Amino acid sequence: MCLGVPGQITEIYDSAGTRMGKINFGGIVKEVCLEYVPGSRGR
Questions:
Q1: pLDDT the model gives residue 30
Q2: What is the domain count for the chain?
């Protein structure tokens, strides 16, 4: 099952050749992989 939860990208960076980001989900910040999220941009 896939779940779509809205979040705000606060930071984008490269980790060992993988596009990563920090996402704020209503006060909870998680580190996520952005490799398969085309068009993802930070502020």
A1: 96
A2: 1
